[in-house]
Amino acid sequence: MTVDDTGSGTGDTASDGEPGRTTGSVADTAAARIDRAEAHARVEEQDRVDAQDGRTDRAETPDRTETPDGAPSAPETSDQVDRAKAAEAAETLGGTSTEGRAETAGRAETSGRAEAAGRSERADRAEAQAAASEEDPLALRLEQLILGAERRYTPFQAARSAGVSVELATRFWRAMGFADIGQAKALTEADVLALRRLSGLVEAGLLSEAMAVQVARSTGQTTARLAEWQIDSFLEGLTEPPEPGMTRTEVTYPLVELLLPELEEFLVYVWRRQLAAATGRVVQAADDEEMVDRRLAVGFADLVGFTRLTRRMEEEELGELVEAFETTAADLVAAHGGRLIKTLGDEVLYAADDAGVAAEIALRLIETMAGDETMPELRVGIAFGTVTTRMGDVFGTTVNLASRLTSIAPKDAVLVDGAFAEELTRTGDAPASETAAADEAAAAEKEGEEPPSYRFALQPMWQRAVRGLGVVEPWQLRRRSN
Question: Where's the Guanylate cyclase domain (predicted)?
Answer without folding.
Answer: 297-406
